Amino acid sequence: MNFCPNCGAPTVFRIPEGDDRKRNICTATGEIFYDNPRNVVGTIVERDGRILMCRRAIEPRLHFWTLPAGFLELGETSAGGAARETLEEAGVQVGQPRLFNLIDVTHIGQIHIFFIADMIGDDYAPGRESAEVRFLAEDEIDWPQLAFPTIHRTLQRYFADRRAGEFGIHVESLGTADWRAMALDREPRD
Fold first, then answer.
1. Cα–Cα distance for residue pair 152/156, rounded to 1 Å
2. Which residue among 79, 100, 117, 171 is least enclosed by CB atoms within 10 Å?
3. Phi, psi at residue 104, to the nearest 5°?
């Protein structure tokens, strides 16, 4: 950031008094601008033993498979944002969202939050960000074709909990090495 979004004055990038990291600071007003993580929210919807999956119609990771998820908007709760993303990407209305998995992805400044949610009705269809929507059984998922490491980890945890007969709440961090190891050498397949 070179200029203050409020008054247009130049900004400086330095450590403010009493802080421990560099921030953008307005040279005219002294206002401090914080660059904080972005939240990605999504759902795991199961029907007849199969999980709702979307094939991406947009970059990044065009044509790869994902759970319905996206960035949380201002004014939304995390569960409400996850429900909105599910409706937008898969045409599925959900209810009763229950926190399942929270993954800190610090190297890209994101937090990924997934909820288990119940499908309302029977309708589903690809939204503008999805090329295809399907319900897939665990053995039908093409694991190397999952779009993001957080999707892979969330599904692994979900299926493990389902086999154990009890769903917990999971919290973890994926570092740069974990992310790269899970994302390397994946090319979309039709």
1. 6
2. 171
3. -80, 125
Prior bond of 60 cis (ω within 30°): yes
Residue-wise pLDDT tens digits, 145-178: 999 999 999 999 999 999 999 999 999 998 877 7
Task: Please indicate, yes or no, whether residues 29 and 45 belong to a single structural domain of this protein.
Answer: no
Q: Is residue 98 domain-resident?
A: yes
pLDDT at 9 over 60: yes
Q: Which residues constitute the domain of residue 28?
A: 1-35
Domains contained in the chain, number: 2
Assigned token pair, 7: 């008054």
> Within a domain: residue 190?
no
Phi and psi at 167, nearest 5°, equal: -95, 125
Predicted structure pTM score: 0.87
User: Token pair of 60, please?
Assistant: 């990044």
